[in-house]
User: Fold these one by one.
Assistant:
Number 1:
Amino acid sequence: MPDAIRIAVIDDHPMFREGALQIFAATDDIRVVAEGATAAEAVRVAEELRPDVMLLDLGLPGGGLEAVAIIAGTFPSVRAVMLTASDSEFDVAAALAVGARGYILKGSSGAEVVETVRAIFNGESYVTPSFALRLPVQMGMHCDAARKCASDLTGREEVVLSLVSLGMTNQEIANRLQLTERSVKHHMTTIMRKSKVRNRVEAMLMFRRGGRLARGSSSAKS
């Protein structure tokens, strides 16, 4: 199948991963070229094999969001798609913000997953319909300009910034990422230094407006 869509499946639940592999094995135009169970393996597969599409679980050891941020920023030809059980709209928005091309729930049918992979390969973006009307409009489907504006942010810092852009407090971010509030504050200090913004508000506006800093915004301490 020289023209088959090359995909990788990264999930830390063996039974689910095997089920996904069986679904794709039944197609004529999709070929699984790799599988894995951690964020580190996802990044390694992206670097070594450059699959067309990569399916990742949000809860991967090492961080699914962090893996997507690294892959989207370093290997843009690899289209990362979240295939996860989380139905949190914050998780959806955060995934799209760091570069995911799509977000599919694990309760989706095999046919829906296959069609989504095909659509993503053809340059489209996809979010499970139940989320489409609930996502904040300002997030958009991509944040490429914001990533270019702060291209030296780590994957973890991009995730923190995406959650800040959703209006989450440091404590809420700490709870979501299983960090201490002090660690989140440290990340914000580093983000502001790297992004050359003066405060949390400017960092949020930079992200929401695609990297264009809003001048004259009010000051706010991180």
Number 2:
Amino acid sequence: MTSLIFSTKNILGQRKSASNHMLLSEIAQYLGGVLIGLDRDISGASTIEEATSADITFLANPKYRDKVQETSAGGIIVAEELGITIPQIIAKDPYLCFARAVNLIYPERPFTPGISPQAYVHPDAEVDETACIFPHVYIGQRAKISKRCVLYPGCFIGEGVSIGENTTVHPNVVVYDGCILGKECIMHAGVVIGSDGFGFAWDGKKHFKIPQKGIVIIGDYVEIGSNCTIDRAALTSTRIGSDVKMDNLVQIGHNVTIGDHTIIVAQSGVAGSASIGRSVILAAQSGVAGHISVGDGCTAAARAGVATDLPPGKIVSGFPAIDHRQWLRAQNVYKDLPGLVKRIRALERRLDGIDND
């Protein structure tokens, strides 16, 4: 094990928020945009409504254009010149450029590398000397923590776990034995990676637990929200592709595969052995049944229940999920049902009157 020991006092307080003072012209150059108007000093970033003369803001949605006239911002990132007195940075994608500007103005403070004396690191573990291990972290036998990783207090890193470079693991994350995390990932507080998949067989008297002996493999640039759970495979691996983004409270079952660039929003769930393609969007509270295949580029709207295979590019809504346009037509009928029922009953009464005649 290679490490640099340092005091608890040094490891805490490394991320006190601070901002850079920059000229709008410097920000424009960094973003590859064009500055229109007077150059001025910027030290913060904020919304259109709350920005001050020291802040930069952005306009991406045209419906908020009227608010630009009322803003006190020192500069604004826009897609086209607005003909206002506020200095403007003209850029192709204002939302993306604003995000990059925020990173520029509020840079991440580097951590002091080393291992807190209050952490436990197994003698056979490998911790790079540039990693930062906070107090009350547990790192098991043969685990490997790569360059510039940050492990916050309360993390459990099991036996044989591998964590790639520049990955941040927030407080109280649990990574079970043998699981693999790629580089530049972010695991938010309370994430559990590699817990047993939900598998049982009835033996006539009770549920017999199916052994879960596989692992979880997570790609690069993955961000997993607070309190998500990703189950280990029964025998092989649960696989999360690169650049996958999960919101809070997402459940991924055993043997699931998720393709690169997929987004899964809060309280969604994917049942065991399902296959999710690349660049899929599962909106909030959506669910995918076990052994289902969802093709590349599909979108499941909020609270959709996907119970059958979806071809690439399909957009679905409802439960059970159907084509989104068909679902919208059904919703238009649904809201008219009380009136339709009233009309049908009136027609029935008229028909009864005709029959009686």
